[in-house]
Amino acid sequence: MWHDIEVGDELPSSSRTTDLENWNRFAAVNDEFVPIHMDDAAGIAAGYPSAIGMGNLQVAYLHNLIRDWLGAEGEIKSISTRFEAPNLRGQTITARGVVTAINAETDRAVISLDVWTENDDGEVLAPSRAVVVMPSEAHSEGLM
Predict the structure, then answer these.
(1) Class of the CATH-defined domain 10-18+53-140
(2) Cα 60 to Cα 65: distance, rounded to the nearest angstrom
(3) pLDDT tens sequence across 71-82
């Protein structure tokens, strides 16, 4: 599974255009109806040009990016995120990632990733690090 992965490999990116409709669905599931995320006036009062997206929604985008890349056999061990800039309504948010280290073991590999979200202008919004585990092919096929 992981034998073809190399340090420097990029994960296939994933993009979403965000708006109040996306944020409302996320807020409904997570009980996060905070005015700064729902009301432009509240966002403006806080110093932003509009309402802003939830930080944890960006973490969800990163989780989806990693999960899609890992496939069913891999496991996300950790994600740590630092929020540097807000997701503004109408922006296209792209989740990206790159392999930074591979620690091969007998039956698996522990893989470190740099992952992040960025806006339409390429500004990084949420730089993050993740650690994932992928089993060897033999282990995932039940041969070990």
Answers:
(1) alpha beta
(2) 9
(3) 888 999 999 999
